[in-house]
Design brief:
heterodimer; A: alpha+beta; Ubiquitin-like (UB roll); 3 helices; 27% helix; B: alpha+beta; Aldehyde Oxidoreductase, domain 3; four-stranded mixed beta sheet; four-stranded antiparallel beta sheet; globular
Chain lengths: 83, 150
């Protein structure tokens, strides 16, 4: 599974992308965030407060409690601020 | 005609609007977003999600084309480093009459602000920080959820 991070999520984690293979127990986006938090203090800091995060699965916005399913690409980022 | 562009190059309004006018529409509306020079901002940087950003903008343009029967919808968004006075975004719409062009233009910029994956970082007094999303933007986007705005 390809992970992408943007804005301050990317900065706190220290990379914009990485490839991971989460175990089967990781079923939702929120599960994934919790599992990733064990990887480093940067991950833990960036992913601690889910209310500040938004996510996309295969380039579509999804709620954080949605199932990962057959996701190939998952992105974590703050609420968008374009325009 | 739909044109969507996400690019670090400066936005040339004249060229973009000339392209929209070529559709032969009677009404062309546009919105330009500019890096604000107030409250001490000295620089701004825009980050995006390559691929998804363009797909979201194309989807919004297609919605506007269908909902208002547009002849053209153009969304050009700049990314990368900018300074106050630089154009960040241009939205332009063309329709047979002004009401459709104006409403579709407002719809596109309101929805772009809450749905397109862009993130702003501002620098003031030598310190840069990520801009927080504004509740007012969500309210502006929500008014287009069904039917015409208030």
């Amino acid at each position: 599974m390809q992970l992408l991070y943007f804005a301050w999520v990317r900065e706190r984690i220290g990379t914009g992308e990485e490839t991971v293979e989460p175990p089967e127990a990781v079923r939702t986006i929120a599960d994934l965030a919790e599992w990733l938090s064990a990887r480093s203090s940067g991950h833990a800091g960036a992913l601690a407060d889910l209310t500040k995060l938004r996510a996309a699965v295969d380039q579509r916005f999804v709620p954080l409690d949605s199932a990962l399913g057959e996701a190939k690409e998952v992105a974590f980022f703050p609420p968008v601020t374009g325009g | 005609m739909i044109r969507v562009s996400v690019d670090p190059a400066p936005i040339d309004i004249g060229t973009e609007l000339a392209g929209v006018e070529e559709t032969g529409a009677g009404a062309v509306a546009s919105f330009t977003g500019v890096v604000r020079a107030d409250d001490g901002v000295t620089a701004m940087e825009l980050e995006h999600y390559p691929g998804m950003t363009e797909a979201v903008l194309c989807d919004l343009a297609e919605q506007a084309m269908a909902r208002w029967g547009l002849l053209s919808a153009v969304i050009v968004h700049r990314v990368g480093p900018m300074v106050p006075g630089d154009r960040v975004v241009l939205v332009a719409t063309a329709a047979v009459h002004r009401r459709e062009a104006l409403e579709a233009c407002a719809f596109l910029i309101d929805r772009l602000k809450t749905e397109a994956p862009f993130w702003k970082r501002e620098t003031r007094d030598g310190h840069s920080r990520w801009v927080a999303a504004r509740a007012g933007d969500a309210q502006a986007a929500a008014r287009w959820a069904d039917g015409s705005p208030d």
